[in-house]
Amino acid sequence: xxxxxxxxxxxxxxxxxxxxxxxIRLAGGKIPHLAAVxxxxxxxxxxxxxxxxxxxxxxxxxSTLIRRGSETTQEEVLEIVRRLNDDPDVDGFIxxxxxxxxxxxxxxxxxxxxxxDVDGFTPVNIGRMTLGLPAYLPATPNGIMTMLExxxxxxxxxxxxxxxxxxxxxxxxxxxxxxxxxxxxxxxTLCHSRTQDMAAHTRRADILIAAIGIPEMVTAELVKxxxxxxxxGINRVEDASRSRGFRLCGDVDYASLExxxxxxxxxxxxxxxxxxxxxxxxxxxxxxxxxx
Length: 292
Ligand SMILES: Nc1nc(=O)c2c([nH]1)NC[C@@H]1CN(c3ccc(C(=O)N[C@@H](CCC(=O)O)C(=O)O)cc3)C=[N+]21
Fold this sequence. Notes:
- Helix 1 (6-26) packs parallel to helix 10 (271-288).
- The protein is of the alpha/beta class.
- The protein is built from 10 helices and 11 strands.
- It has 2 domains: 27-113, Rossmann fold (3-Layer(aba) Sandwich), CATH 3.40.50; 139-272, Rossmann fold (3-Layer(aba) Sandwich).
- 5,10-Methenyltetrahydrofolate binds next to helix 2, strand 4 and helix 10.
- Residues 47-48, 51, 94-97, 119, 139, 234, 248, 267-269, 272-273, 275-276 line the site of 5,10-Methenyltetrahydrofolate (GUE).
- One of its GO terms (biological process) is tetrahydrofolate interconversion.
């Protein structure tokens, strides 16, 4: 089995980005600037945002982290969004999800200027993506597309099954893989909580993408021998033997699939680092695309 090493690939791409930033600096151009808004104290979000800020430093981007407590009001978050929308130095920004329950994520998302929406979550970018127009693509699905491309995994005419229909992973993933292009041109089935007989679908998949958030749900009986498996899940499972009190696992039962699949992403070190790198690529694009 081939391990699809997202961590190593992310490092390679970050090195390419770093060289490009060096060129920009030599030419006296604008250094890309990413801002991240983190509201509340979700422990996983802390890790992800830290990874994003560190990766910015690694490639020579400027980064700004705006942190607020969990008591922050929706109006205060909207005020931060408006300020970032209007800040000419900030090329792109993200509002880390999930937000505290008293804040409506849709309202916040709709306030983000599409030109600065490097997450690719706003209606304009999702619409443009769906139409095949230039757009900021959502980071996780785009990271998976980059991985398929760089590892030379053929998708044309293949049966792809996506598990999970979230706005940020499952739905855009199904759109990107069914579009024309390479990767793309696949026959895509999108399964979700109301799917009848999920196994009947997954067992036909040449490429299986798991993004449901249920720890180790995808076991060997659900998978066709020789399939390529992409594990998007990052679940924290209680484990007293670990120093942190938990271990990370995916939506895929890695050990049971290892003997039968042809290629698979690990967790951690698979899709997660590719998500961060996609965000950096979008930020560079935003920085270059500026009119001023
Ligand atoms: N507005 C917004 N945009 C996002 O892109 C967004 C978000 N909200 N909310 C949550 C999800 C999840 N996400 C990850 C980012 C990095 C890793 C990552 O770096 N993972 C490492 C380390 C994982 C760990 O140590 O916990 C790995 O898989 O190897 C994972 C997941 C971005 N998301």
